[in-house]
Write a structure and sequence with these properties.
There is one protein chain. The chain is of the alpha+beta class. Helix content is 59%, strand content 13%. It has seven helices and four strands, in the order αββββαααααα. α3 runs antiparallel to α4 and α5 packs antiparallel against α6. The longest helix has 28 residues. It starts with a helix and ends in a 9-residue tail after the last helix.
């Protein structure tokens, strides 16, 4: 029996060390200029992010100078994957920034963690889809009028491929621990 406890303790320590190491991985932070740093996020607010590069330099970067993918990557790294509200907040941020595929994934995760959120999320998702569809359609019409049919078709394709967000909650099997 003591051997089993010792073995279990070693496994737990290794698992904890592995999860800490995974959290400590540097993120690629890409500027709109193309410059890329591999860095650790020290802090972040609504306007900037403070990072420490692998070389040890600490700097504060305006979020507006980062690519949208980097902004998302930073937010995703700071979100708790096992907290419904954290996933919901990230989903709303993604939807607000036209990252609909990512929003769908985080809406699904939020519902998986807390099925009680399903009606509210479905309502909000329908509103996002309507708003985004109208924006894409208006932009597609402008592009078509400007003689850019390929770009117009690209936007119309996004409506079909990226915006069926209402399905985000419908395909989730509620977590049996909830409700």
């Amino acid at each position: 029996k003591p051997m089993n406890v010792r073995r279990l303790s070693v496994c737990l320590v290794l698992l904890l060390a592995g999860s800490l190491a995974a959290q400590d991985e540097p993120l690629p932070i890409e500027m709109v200029s193309g410059k890329v740093w591999h860095a650790h996020v020290v802090s972040m607010d609504d306007a900037s992010v403070e990072i420490t590069t692998n070389e040890g330099a600490t700097m504060t970067l305006p979020l507006e100078n980062l690519t949208m993918e980097s902004r998302y990557r930073i937010r995703r790294s700071r979100a708790d994957n096992d907290d419904a509200q954290s996933q919901l907040d990230l989903a709303y941020w993604c939807a607000d920034h036209s990252l609909y595929m990512d929003a769908r994934r985080h809406f699904r995760r939020a519902v998986d963690l807390d099925a009680v959120l399903t009606p509210k999320i479905n309502e909000d998702v329908a509103a996002y889809r309507t708003k985004a569809s109208k924006e894409f359609l208006a932009e597609a019409k402008e592009l078509q009028a400007a003689g850019k049919p390929k770009e117009a078709r690209r936007l119309l394709t996004r409506i079909v491929k990226e915006l069926p967000l209402e399905e985000a909650c419908l395909k989730v099997t509620p977590n049996p621990r909830v409700g």
